[in-house]
Specification:
alpha+beta; 2 domains; 7-stranded mixed β-sheet; about 40% strand
Length: about 375
């Protein structure tokens, strides 16, 4: 396997010459600023020209990760040419959250063969219910297939996101690439680092990813009580106070984290990136700086491959983590590379949701985590 990473800025161009690695066994992953949907510019056209036969995919984010840097208004690109592993790309529309499970089943059906080993998925970030997308894929994929990825971002604006497929920027789509053959090695890790606070409350009314009531009280009203003055900045301020949920019969360690995408003042409801099941137990969370950095390290420890050759790390961190870490944001991407094998290549983006198994098994939707996918080849 041969791999390189590159950064493109509108003012400075490419950080290095794009390599001559074009082939059907080459994967090009592009993470870029939301503004590229309005002005794709020369960066994306350069990729289309340099890699006409390669598998090209990507999405927008709330910041781009390149090595140990976090930047805005750039493209962060990984180019991976496999020696033996084969690739296949597919996409599905998702114009409404109600179509999320269908989109998940569609991409899974298109990719599934006995030789499939892993799938990397990138989804539009606003009109998709991440829980339902995952459910559709899990119902279709063999349980041995590793599924990871993330939901595209749009900084803290929550207006538009895009995915890149077939060298075109598209809204309201899901794109996925399948890795085939026994030579490919895929690692994964997903960890958070947020603290629970306040009482645990019962979800007494919800529909899919829309939460209406907690303990019989309007969800938005209750949420605003905890946020105080920050309530005026919703939904962006909600990124600092995600919701932890678990089933009534599940252990506290099995909590999933959910991030707010939108609020509805008239309905007094909150829309999250994934399902909030009725009857589940919920609790607010807030950031602990040291634990957030520790979560990045723990994710790297879980995802690290015992590999002597080249390793590429696709890092997907939640936009809420970026808001919490502020000017110290690069500490979490540095923490990942401190744990990874020397010379690991890292690119990534800040997301509206992360896709990964907890530790093993089926994929799940996560929020407020650092989620890593490591790629290598024997």
């Amino acid at each position: 396997m041969k791999a390189s990473i590159f950064q493109f800025t509108r003012d400075g161009g490419w950080s290095d010459h794009l390599p001559g690695l074009d082939s059907p066994q080459t994967l090009v992953v592009v993470f870029g600023a939301p503004s590229y949907i309005d002005d794709p510019g020369t960066g994306l056209s350069d990729i289309a020209t340099a890699f006409p036969t390669s598998v090209v995919m990507g999405c927008s984010g709330a910041g781009e990760i390149f090595g140990t840097q976090v930047a805005d208004e750039t493209l962060s690109v990984a180019v991976i040419q496999f020696d033996a592993a084969e690739l296949r790309i597919t996409e599905a529309p998702c114009d409404d959250p109600g179509e999320s499970a269908f989109a998940g089943r569609a991409v899974a059906t298109a990719l599934s063969t006995p030789e499939l080993r892993a799938v990397f998925v990138l989804s539009e970030g606003l009109n998709v219910n991440g829980s339902e997308l995952v459910r559709g894929m899990n119902e279709t994929f063999d349980e041995a297939v590793i599924v990871t990825g993330g939901l595209a971002g749009d900084n803290d604006r929550f207006e538009r996101t895009w995915v890149l497929s077939d060298n075109q920027l598209k809204t309201n789509h899901v794109v996925a690439v399948g890795f085939y053959g026994d030579s490919v090695r895929i690692g994964h890790g997903s960890k958070g680092g947020w603290d629970i606070f306040g009482p645990e409350r019962v979800v007494t009314r919800s529909e899919g990813n829309v939460l209406y009531e907690l303990d019989g009280r309007p969800a938005l009203e209750l949420y605003k009580e905890y946020l105080g003055g920050l309530a005026e900045e919703l939904p962006a301020s909600g990124l600092l106070f995600p919701l932890a949920i678990r089933g009534a019969d599940e252990a506290p360690d099995d909590r999933l984290v959910r991030t707010i995408l939108a609020v509805d003042e008239e309905a007094q409801s909150l829309t999250f990136a994934g399902d909030i099941p009725e009857g589940s137990l919920s609790q607010l969370m807030r950031a602990n700086f040291d634990r957030v950095i520790g979560g990045a390290e723990a994710a790297a420890e879980a995802a690290a491959l015992n590999q002597s050759g080249q390793v590429v790390c696709l890092s997907i961190s939640c936009v809420g983590r970026r808001l919490v870490l502020g000017e110290r944001i690069e500490e979490e991407v540095e923490a990942v590379l401190d744990v990874m094998p020397p010379d690991t290549l890292q690119v990534g983006f800040y997301s509206y949701g992360e896709l990964s198994p907890f530790a093993s098994g089926a994929c799940d939707l996560h929020n407020q985590t650092m989620t890593l996918t490591t790629i290598a080849e024997d």
